[in-house]
Please model this.
Amino acid sequence: MKDIVIKTRHLRRELWIWIGCFVILCGWNAYGIALHHTAWSELYTLWYVLLPLSLLFYLLLLPFRYVGHLLLRGGCCGKRNKGENA
Amino acid sequence: MNQNKKINRRDFLKELGFTAGTATLLSSFPWLAGCTEQHQKETAGEKPARIGVIGPGSRGQYLLGFLMMNPKADVVWLCDTYQPSLDAALKMAPAAKTCKDYRQVLDDPSVDAVVIATPLHTHREIAVAAMEAGKQVFCEKSVARTLEDTRAVYDTHKRTGQILFIDQQRLFDPVYIKAMEMIRSGMFGEIDGIKTFWNRNNDWRRPLPSPDLERQINWRLYKEYSCGLMTELGCHQIQMGTWIWRKLPTKIYGQGAIVHWKDGREVEDNVGVTYTYEDGRRMTFDSIISNQFYGLEEQIMGNLGTVEPEKGKYYFEQTPPMPGFLQILNNIEKDVFSSVSFAGPSWDPEVARQNHGAYILGAKRDFLDGTGFTVDAFVEAVLSGKQPPMIAEEGYYATILALLGQQSIEENRELPFPEEYRIDYL
Model:
């Protein structure tokens, strides 16, 4: 049986995606503060909302990324097969 | 009984901020002067106050419990016409002498003070006789059964110079004192209305060992001895008007009836009285004793907030806005899930605000009320020989207003505040 190996570059990529989710939510938070004229301290006082929500976003992205991955791989394989036939 | 042990005198002073800046608090609540550490040191070397308890029934025993816990008080007499009450009290104060005639207590020159917890109609006779005999007096509320009797008790206090405490325990309740301080600071804006109510669901009867003791034991139910809900319950809450507004109402209108407990009683079991002040503000008192859902409360309503001292809480009208981010999420949720109005008028009923408020003392109260502190303050006053300001006057007006409410109910008409019962206060 083959070991599952998660490479460092995969870990780094996942971390960047999660940070991306968090940054988007922070931006959204700033927008909410500006829109509703609430306190700017909410940028850090709402960490208990933003942190779990960013994880949720990250998890929600997974199926979409998987589908995208399959589509991309399908496209590549198709091209490769054509090449092989030629 | 042991409620005072949970919040001892030192804590009581601390709760109220009596640590360094006593002067500010004492200017607003001068009757608390006897509670200061300095005052207590002054009376610490004195011999204990020798006190007689007249009427140690259920309420009298409650007061007796506080006296027994106070090392500065020595209960030397117990007086009651009802032997079982006397026997029960004697178990609490075994060293005390007993008698059935209060005059025996008053004739004892070694007695400094008396606590009167007898049925309401006897208050005048005993309180006046006690003050005439040179005794300091702690009298259960209400002061007396009639307007004339109430005035006579107060006048005797002024004439003789003897100490008179009326057991309006809210004056010594840390929650009420703190709430009053907040109200005076303007936290809740202008107080535009006070709504008080006291509801319970029982017949207000005590068990009888023999039917011929009905009027002696259930005296609260008969008009010869009591004004029922007005003098036994309303008197406490009505005091809030004079305490907060420092004014007397100009008009009093009440209604009441025996609606539920038709068991031969004479006093109403369902009353409502409105006290209207010069500028139109109103204080109401309502009491029903066949439904206890809302219990008792005083809702003190300002344009910026509400205080509910019985719950120990206050609420602001404008609550801090929800964080901007959560507002956005809420709006999204509303857009997705809210129902679409199809036809007909839309109406948003003004149901009670879902506002959890905040505790007046910062946490839920873990004591019953201010009775223990009132008794302690009385003992301090007896030892120092000084009448704390406002105690007798607040008690006097609370009784007068309760009695006027009862009179209005009985005569079914609006009454003006009678000038002859105005005293030099407010």
User: Anything to note?
Assistant: The domain at 173-320+354-367+399-421 of chain B is CATH 3.30.360.10 (Dihydrodipicolinate Reductase; domain 2). The two ends of chain B are 35 Å apart (CA to CA). Chain B touches chain A at residues 321-328 (CB under 8 Å). The longest strand of chain B covers residues 191-198.
